[in-house]
Amino acid sequence: MSILSGGDKRNTENIWKRLAGSGFRARQKLSPKDREYYYRKGKAVIREHARDFVLNRLAPAHPRNDTRQTPFRGHPVFMAQHATATCCRKCLAKWHGVEKGRPLDEQEVEYVVDLLLAWLARETNN
Question: What is the pTM of this model?
């Protein structure tokens, strides 16, 4: 069952605990450059960027270069995607229960964007 469906919908406390238990996910941190970019652009612009990245790189049923579509540098959202296991459809399926092979619906897109912004808020204390 997906955390996006049924009674377990958006159980983010459980997600944070699971992500913290992964050495790889827990090691992800914003670079000083990404942190400065986040503060300079502000939450609203970063949310727009996150939504655009999710819609174009994650939401399609079969994203181009799946499992390799999210860089590790160049935007604070990219690091957030790796930290929250929303970087590719394989990780989205494994960590969040969202099956591969079909496009993300609007609720799932918003869930991912909200999760990304929550991670960035935790990282920036903002």
Answer: 0.89
